[in-house]
Amino acid sequence: MTSTALLLKALKALKAEVSSAIPNRVEEGYGLNSNIVRKLAKEGTDLIITVDNGVKAYSSIELANELEIDVILTDHHVLEGKPPSALAFIHPSTTPENSPYRNLAGVGLAYVIATSLAKEYKIKTIIKDSLDLFCLGTIADMAQLNGSNRYLLIKGLKTMHQTSCLGLKELYNLAGLKDQEINAE
Questions:
Q1: What contacts 130, CB < 8 A, 6 or more positions away?
Q2: Per-residue pLDDT tens for 150-178?
């Protein structure tokens, strides 16, 4: 959820025409599936960007290719064999062994994409509150806290209490934290 929210926010800041498609895990299963691909095709979608899923969606990505929908696959889950045939494949395993990005969760990949877009288009608002979503998603996904994960969490936790993200503000209120700074505890 945090990966999708983060990337949607970044793309909307660029005035991209975007929407999200998050399947109901109980009724539709997890991640990209053929029903979603067909639905998106009917809606006129020409690009699907997966966040935090897709490494095992071979048949769904093949269907997207047949329907002339490009797929950018971003995922951190274990890749067994070669990646699906997507337009682009963004996965921590494709970084060098000693890369600080090696253990990024899906939200970390979304954060890297958003910050890259912010730099490319010189629009800092693209990543406003993105570090907050990165922190929440990284912890929720129980990603290893080393490399970039550790660095960005230390940086993000210091300012997370000042977020303008309405969902995070509500979580703060529900937890009774008000405007308290969050730390490792």
A1: 6, 9, 10, 111, 114, 115
A2: 999 999 999 888 888 888 899 889 988 87
